[in-house]
Design a protein that fits this description.
Structural class: mainly alpha
Length: about 260
């Protein structure tokens, strides 16, 4: 099969007839199951990449859908190349292609290396959540929820939640519902992380002896309010100042779901 089909497939992907290329894209799962990784990278993925920038929207979309099965077999260089095509497809004029692109990214995210994943998924999801097409925003929120374990707690709190929050009042009811589900899911994870951090903080506080001052207090004893150092006898110690009051608070046809 490799000796007979692979060379022909590589040549056929160069044919300008979209019918031939569409038929080949429909057989990519068969090729992926029969050919080794080296052959898939050189003879299948490389020639089929032209479909990502084809002027025909159906062919671009079919190329995207067909590539899912190749991702586990792609070399690091071809994965990097694929991410560049995915970023470009997020600006495709066809709304269904933009939607399928974010679904694609969510499905392959666990298979990506740390470096590629960190560059791709969060910017891609944030971009898709701003899309004017409601199904694209919905797909992005579902992707965020499916990939929440791939983000650090700091990224969830500082980057992901702020991107999700505006969609709690999205104009589309289904998008709002998904945004609430995503936010609640991430808050559960952050609450667990906060409790874990709290246990560590309590242990650190217990290490300070009964007669010893915490770091902030020790710093205060070492310097007078006027900037002069205090003597060993404590001469010149100023009376404690009242703490400042806290400020008052201000008043189409799409790829399958992530589980498949």
């Amino acid at each position: 099969f490799r000796d007979t089909v692979a060379p022909v497939a590589s040549a056929l992907f160069q044919v300008n007839d979209r019918g031939v290329r569409g038929a080949l894209l429909g057989r990519v799962p068969l090729l992926a199951s029969r050919l080794d990784a080296a052959t898939l990278n050189a003879s299948v993925f490389e020639p089929m990449c032209s479909g990502f920038s084809d002027s025909s929207a159906p062919l671009r979309e079919l190329t995207l859908k067909s590539t899912v099965v190749l991702v586990p077999h792609l070399s690091p260089a071809n994965l990097e190349k694929l991410t560049r095509y995915l970023v470009r497809l997020q600006s495709d004029p066809e709304s269904s292609i933009r939607t399928n692109t974010v679904i694609f990214i969510g499905k392959i995210a666990p298979q990506l290396g740390d470096v590629v994943r960190s560059k791709l998924i969060l910017p891609a999801f944030a971009r898709a959540m701003k899309d004017e097409f409601p199904p694209c925003r919905l797909a992005a929120l579902r992707a965020v929820r499916a990939c929440k374990g791939l983000f650090s707690p700091g990224d969830v709190a500082g980057k992901v939640l702020p991107a999700v929050a505006p969609h709690l009042v999205d104009t589309a009811a289904e998008v709002r519902a998904e945004a609430f589900g995503a936010a609640e899911s991430m808050m559960e994870g952050l609450r667990a992380e906060s409790q874990r951090m709290g246990i560590g903080g309590a242990a650190a506080g217990a290490a300070v002896g009964p007669g010893s001052a915490p770091p902030a207090a020790a710093a205060g004893m070492g310097m007078g309010l006027d900037g002069s150092g205090l003597g060993a006898s404590g001469a010149g110690t100023q009376p404690p100042q009242p703490a400042a009051a806290a400020p008052a608070p201000s008043s189409g046809s799409y790829l399958s779901s992530f589980g498949s």
